[in-house]
């Protein structure tokens, strides 16, 4: 398990997509009940969401950790939380389905740990106004795009057009990871080139071995 995670309150997603009411209260109650079990496994409880799926309810839980979350981690979290829910009867008597997953790349970067875990990734983020109380502030805030090169609990360092810039988290809005298709293509091309070089080397060795008997 990943024991280096830092824990904070999870984001709560209410049932049916409503921002208030019973759904939000149920999500908050479940998050409070389940967060200690997730923390004990060295992970962070990122979000809790309850939705309706016919006569059943669907409980979606997202967990994360430094170094990522493996399929084995997901399976273990599912077993632990299922046992916790059954023992506490937190979901009541109605049938439900538990779904545990890790965050996708579309998860906004809103916590220091999110930025830290995205080091090396290309991101974009809005800049917050210097003085939010100004009535003449522009409707659209400027944004930055660059690669995260470092982050801790107070600031994040981003390479913007070759210039290293440091921002406090209060200076940035929610960050978004950008998918780099060109970068993936370059990695694939490098792998293909390495394979070609290895094949050429093997052929040269075999040719040398075959010529030796003719010299005797």
Walkthrough of the structure:
The structure is a single chain. The protein has 216 residues and is an alpha+beta fold. The chain folds into two domains: 11-101, GMP Synthetase, Chain A, domain 3 (2-Layer Sandwich); 106-204, SH3 type barrels, CATH 2.30.30.100. It has helices spanning 22-40, 71-88, 112-117, 181-211, and strands at 11-13, 44-53, 56-64, 96-101, 122-126, 143-151, 155-160, 163-168, 176-177. The strands form two sheets. The protein has a five-stranded antiparallel β-sheet with strand order 8-7-6-5-9. A hairpin with a 2-residue loop joins β2 and β3. The chain is elongated. The model is unreliable at 1-9, 12-20, 131-139 and 195-216 (pLDDT under 50).
How many domains make up the coordinates? 2
What's the number of helices? Answer: 4
Computed structural class: alpha+beta
Following the backbone from N to C, one meets helices and strands in this order, namely EHEEHEHEEEEEH
CATH architecture of the largest domain: Roll
Could you name the ranges where pLDDT drops below 50 across 5 or more consecutive residues?
Answer: 1-9, 12-20, 131-139, 195-216
Overall radius of gyration: 25 Å
Give the total of beta strands. 9
Question: Main attributes?
Answer:
216 residues; GMP Synthetase, Chain A, domain 3; SH3 type barrels; 26% strand; single chain; five-stranded antiparallel β-sheet; four-stranded mixed β-sheet; disordered C terminus; 2 domains; alpha+beta; 4 helices; elongated; disordered N terminus
Write the layout of secondary structure elements.
Blueprint: E1 11-13, H1 22-40, E2 44-53, E3 56-64, H2 71-88, E4 96-101, H3 112-117, E5 122-126, E6 143-151, E7 155-160, E8 163-168, E9 176-177, H4 181-211
Parallel strand pairs: 1-2, 3-4
Antiparallel strand pairs: 2-3, 5-6, 5-9, 6-7, 7-8
């Amino acid at each position: 398990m990943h024991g280096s995670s830092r824990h904070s309150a999870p984001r709560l997603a209410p049932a049916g997509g409503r921002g208030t009411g019973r759904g939000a209260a149920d999500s908050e109650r479940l998050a409070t009940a389940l967060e200690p079990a997730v923390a004990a496994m060295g992970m962070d409880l990122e979000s809790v969401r309850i939705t309706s799926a016919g006569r059943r309810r669907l409980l979606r839980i997202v967990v994360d950790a430094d170094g990522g979350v493996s399929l084995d981690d997901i399976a273990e979290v599912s077993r632990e939380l299922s046992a916790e829910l059954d023992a506490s009867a937190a979901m009541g008597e109605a049938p439900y389905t538990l779904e545990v997953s890790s965050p996708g790349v579309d998860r906004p970067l809103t916590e220091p740990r999110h930025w830290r875990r995205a080091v090396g990734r290309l991101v974009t983020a809005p800049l917050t106004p210097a003085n939010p109380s100004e009535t003449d502030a522009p409707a659209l805030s400027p944004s930055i795009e660059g690669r995260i090169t470092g982050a801790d609990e107070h600031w994040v360092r981003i390479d913007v057009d070759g210039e290293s810039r440091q921002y406090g988290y209060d200076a940035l809005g929610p960050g978004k990871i950008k998918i780099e298709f060109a970068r993936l293509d370059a990695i694939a091309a490098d792998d293909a080139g390495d394979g070609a070089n290895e094949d050429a080397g093997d052929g040269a060795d075999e040719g040398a071995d075959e010529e030796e008997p003719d010299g005797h």
